[in-house]
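Changelog note: in this version the structure field was regenerated for every chain. One regenerated record is shown below for reference.
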Amino acid sequence: MTLVHVVGIGLNGAAGLSENLRRLVEQATLLVGSDRHLSYFPNHPSQRWVLGDFTEAIAEIRRRLSTGDGIIIVLVSGDPLFFGLGRLLLAELPPEQLTFHPHLSSIQLAFSRIKVSWHDARVISVHGRSCDELIQALQQGVEKIAVLTDTKNTPSAIARLYLGLDLPSYYQFWVCEDLGGTEERVQLIPVDALCEQVFAALNVVVLLRQSEKENEHLQPVLGLPDGAFLSFSDRPGLMTKREVRILILGELALLPGQIIWDIGAGTGSVAIEIARLCPTSYVYAIEKTSAGTTLIEQNCQRFQVKNVISIHGNAPEILHNLPTPHRIFIGGSGGNLSEILDTCGSKLAPLGILVLALATVEHLNTALGWMRSHGWETRLLQVQLSRSVPVGQLTRFCPLNPVTIITAINYTNGR
């Protein structure tokens, strides 16, 4: 019953089709496709329908189907059912009237050219779409990302977006142009050099995550970029963000020569910021995961910090053997927040300061309940920040996760 054949085609045109498909196309009574696709068959005798208004094209195809008038060929790029016209055709026409003849997709060709397997790649189309899915994949540190572009979301625009996100993950950028055509070009381009270049209209961008981001430049005294830290390979970006770190450092009211606990230290970002600001203080970075402890030690070496003591263990048990702290920061509790607060409350020096950064309402409620029951005075700071990111030639704001910072002073033994 099939009357509509959806034929995938590459930049090599009719020469890239099998003999059987070329014969099928020759039998068509109606050829539907873009100007470029139709140009591959300049001498075809059938009627042609240039794909402009999809609604009009569907109406014409339906009219032809109702009369049983010959064979209709719809020419598309690559694989019709891979980010192609096939999905729309299936939504408009009965499946039994459609047959699909896929060609190699641009994604297949791109990965074959750069010689990387793609079974585990995340394929994202920004062709006529927003970059939200791409932003999420980059923030998650997806290992391999292939991006289908358009005239707005070009390789250069994607590079600017990537740089604007200030990510902890470093990516190689491959730009693959005119794949399968005589003008094919595949390049690995440094992201800084990519931002202002112009590429062929038909291109695919492949981003490959690297082991770490090079720490080439001098870093500021306060507010290290998130991307400067080594992070969890399976959870890149899982750290206290730069803007929130700066607020936490202010709330801690640090002084020289202090003992500071950083509980749930993660990658060590807060501990390292404290240690760099206060070289005569000692920061105990407590982390329950061995991966986190390793990252803390690697990041200390990376920033040449000598006054952070990395402690691998579970709070509150591990806290009892540590020296009395003048400042405590709690960035993670592992579900033991009340027990950790009990220990911190008994260990914190008189007039010492306790700061918590909480991302959930439940933990906020637990912390406030503990503070009230123990007579501690608190100050709350709700942080809702957004970073600007370039989108094409425009700029939009991308929100960070909201955080509530609680600051409390131990007056119980200091009055």
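Spot check on this record: The chain has three domains: 4-104, 107-209, 226-409. The chain has a mean pLDDT of 91.
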